[in-house]
Amino acid sequence: MGATATSLDDQRLKVVFDGPQRAITPGQAVVIYDGEQVLAGGTIAEVID
Description:
The protein is mainly beta. It has strands spanning 3-7, 13-17, 29-34, 37-43. The strands form 2 sheets. The protein has a two-stranded antiparallel ribbon. A two-stranded antiparallel ribbon has the order 3-4.
């Protein structure tokens, strides 16, 4: 599944997925990979449909 991550202020990222996702919930973890390398990770603060 592809996604686009954009850096925001205060060390936050906005992540927009290429397709629909099910059951994304604040408090869950999100991890961004480049192949097998971890680029970033954090806790989901807000979900916007």
